[in-house]
Amino acid sequence: MSFLLMPDPVAARRFFLGRSGSLLSGAAVALLAGKPALAAQAGASAGDAQILNTALGAELEAIAAYQVGAESQLLQKPALDLALLFQGHHKEHAELLARTIEKLGGKPVAAKSKYSFPVEQLKSQADVLRFAAGLEQGAVSAYLGAVPLFGNRDLAKAAASILGDEAMHWAALRQALGMPPVPTAFVA
Amino acid sequence: MSAAHAALAAALSLCSVAGASAAADAAHGEQVYSRCLACHALAYDRVGPHHCGLFGRIAGSVPGFDYSPAMKNAHITWNDKTLDRFLAAPTQTVPGTKMTYDGVPDAKDRQDLIAYLKGASRSAACVH
Predict the structure, then answer these.
(1) What are the residue boundaries of the structural domains of chain A, listed by start?
(2) Which residues from A are below 8 Å from B91, CB to CB?
(3) Contact A137 B37 (CB under 8 A)
(4) Contacting residues of A for B100, CB less than 8 Å apart
(5) In chain B, what residues touch A135 (CB-CB under 8 Å)?
(6) In terms of CB atoms within 10 Å, which end of chain A has fewer, N or C?
(7) Where are the domains of chain B?
(8) Architecture of domain B22-126 in CATH?
(9) Which of B38, B91, B103 shows the shortest C-beta gap to A142?
(10) Contact call for residues B70 and B95 (beta carbons, < 8 A)
(11) Cβ separation B98–A50 shorter than 8 A
């Protein structure tokens, strides 16, 4: 049963958070943060750090986008909880990416002081969810396009782990919009 | 030339003609553009630069955008041909680009994407 179809919002929130709180935690953290000698591993390169930095920039922007959505007063529970949960995932991604870039000898990009979002087009909860879904879909494609470029296979695996998480975000947002959550057998 | 070679050449020729004459599908190109939405928007800069005004623009020239040195020095003017080449393999076309993306491998997808971008850059979203 979808949490979105549950009549009691408190129960729906508990149901959703109880099942999704640890979606990403294991694999990527173990792959990256637990390897202090990552920079010395064969295959890791300045190119890998650049790939991670581009991803970090997108993650930081996603965090800001979800903040705009959360503060818009257009989201009601449980959609608001969904947005905050996904924002939390993006924060975890960003923290991990930044630490890894530093281990590779790079300098993590910082969050911008100001982001541009089409706030004038966000007039309803559905508008916010549709905007977020578009960002998540793009994130899936961005990670998919980054995975083959890594010199280090552990980094590629970690990026694929983040890709999986963001694909679930995209699916959940589509479900919340009343769309088929998984529209195709493959992503591009 | 053997008969087999002649047949192959004829087939390749037909394929080439068919490929060249296939109409670009901007509606499909908009779907392909959804792959770009983690980093790009038409009207404003994000992780990547905005796409309004892309055609005829010199690579690395959007004021205020933090490009890689590689893109600043790429000496590319964006048009159908240069976009097609770059989108096929960004990191090979401009080594050092921050657009660390493997590319759009399908030529028809690229053709449609470029058609969409061309139309979108003249749309209301790009009129300030």
Answers:
(1) 25-176
(2) 47, 149
(3) yes
(4) 47, 50-51, 54-55, 145-146, 149
(5) 37-38
(6) N
(7) 22-126
(8) Orthogonal Bundle (1.10)
(9) B38
(10) yes
(11) yes
pTM (2 decimals)? 0.82
* Among candidate residues A126, A171, A140, A157, the one with its CA nearest the CA of residue A62: A140
List, for residues B77-97, the tens digit of each pLDDT value: 999 999 999 999 999 999 999
ipTM: 0.81
- List own/partner pairs for B30-34 with CB under 8 A and 24 or more apart: B30/B116, B30/B120, B32/A188, B32/B104, B32/B109, B32/B110, B32/B112, B32/B113, B32/B116, B33/B113, B33/B116, B33/B117, B33/B120, B34/A134, B34/A137, B34/A138, B34/A141
* Segment A155-177 mean pLDDT: 97
Write out the CATH class of domain A25-176: mainly alpha
- Which of A58, A118, A149 faces B38 most closely, judged by CB atoms? A58
